[in-house]
Specification:
alpha+beta; four-stranded antiparallel sheet; elongated
Amino acid sequence: MITPDNFETLYSDPIEKQEISKFVCNEICRQIHRYIKGMSGSHKTMLKFEDSLRNMTVPEKERAIAAYIDLNRHALDGLDMKMVLVRAMANYCDTFAYMMEMVNDKRKWALYLKSIRDTYFRFHKVFEENGHYGLKDYDGNVIVKPNYEFIRTPYVYVDDIRQTPVIVQKDGKMGLILADGHDTIVAPIRYDDISLRDEEPYFVARIGERTVLLDTAPKGRE
């Protein structure tokens, strides 16, 4: 199994791995940039996304993008990791012949492709404890405590690297929290139902006969 710890031992040139990772990260950022442009058509929105990543190191960007993809799965639409890797290799190589040598090295290709998927496809999982549900991240860390009768992670579009709230139900009522390990409340757990919209604010709630749009700022307010 390839891991960050043993990846270096499989290559004679660790600089190559470092540079390919950087170019892969840049290419995935570019692809998400295109996704945002296609969804919103807003130059301001694209700048907002890029500003979120601007001062991060490559490993920090990798973690941030993986978290973004986890809760914004539509960003994967049209994202072909083979093309991402080809573009990264092309950016790394200084001659066409060198690029073709890399592309045609089946073992290296497979190892790089697996490493990319392991880096960016790090999806959370729902788990059950004593009849209640919580969430764990890819590494098994609890990001939502098992305190809820129902959990739904809505994979909706957002325009920067930020968390999408999780819909939860407790004592028959529904609300919104962040999957941040602290169950930070975004919208109070008092609604009879919460559903999604295609534009901001993304959540609409029903309480009795009244329908309200939910502001998903961290402290939550209607």
